[in-house]
């Protein structure tokens, strides 16, 4: 096993060569990190709990500085080619009657060339671009034993290996974070809402249109991208009080009991869905994203929650900044991790702050608030100064998405 070594290539940069790095998690952040580490001369290995590449998932936004990262990877074109092409968001009452419509880009807070893409498409593009990076599917980390020179890792499917660095890119409920930093409860900050996402039959959605049914304390959405063989459903609701297990799928039925429109059909489809994701919407808040030779990136370190609309962009930018910092640290992981945190902390804070603000408009508290919101949406196209008003709505997201000075590409 070769450990950290460097070859000087300029007066200001070093490139780390033949350094073994384990990345736990093959999602957006992990795949992007593998690409950048390989570019800098590291030797990454990705371990992924799923038995095969995950090509499903919900649609996600890529904005601001994350677009710059994709451009520097040469992947902006392929990502834009997979834009969802969504056209409209339609708000519906319990009988399915239209309350208001909204341009899809405005509904998603997108501007300045932002892209909306299915998570599975983005991950596949990143994974393919990473080339011959080793992937260990259907496996996970079970123990970490770190010392001054490396980290001994034991895997669930047996065997162990020694790596120079271990990076947790394994999401909100990160195993690496738990093993290296302690119980999850110490780092998770619930936002008081739950989210459920799953695949449902195509007939329940409309092509390139997001159908939304708001009700007090809960919202349901369903959409189908152009040519897709199925649709995706989204359930948002205030976290139930006193539930013995709020992540039990049965809580979904209780939360939406008595709901109108096509919610009963969507609930029935969700029960049968093989990919149902149900969890509390939470953020990760940590005093440090590294300890010794173990570090975190993406949701594992600083999940902003789906309500922020910035989780994917944080993962892409974080992977770029972390790889650059480690490559420039002259073989000193602590210095690399510290540089990564200094640059990323303000960016993370700005984007995490979006979540609670956005949630207020995603799940409304009363029928009166719903009437006011949909009335304003109907009037928006007729009001003077419409473009200025739209710009004000999108400005906080645009500002947060560019709140970082990216290091120059090596």
Automatic annotation (TrEMBL):
TM annotation in the entry: none
InterPro entries, A to Z: FAD-bd (IPR002938), FAD/NAD-bd_sf (IPR036188), FAD_aromatic-hydroxylase (IPR051704)
The FAD-binding domain, residue ranges: 19-350
UniProt-listed Gene3D superfamilies: D-Amino Acid Oxidase, subunit A, domain 2, FAD/NAD(P)-binding domain
GO MF terms held by the record: FAD binding
SUPFAM superfamilies associated with the record: FAD/NAD(P)-binding domain
Matches recorded under PANTHER family: MONOOXYGENASE, OXIDOREDUCTASE-RELATED
Name of this chain's protein: 2-polyprenyl-6-methoxyphenol hydroxylase
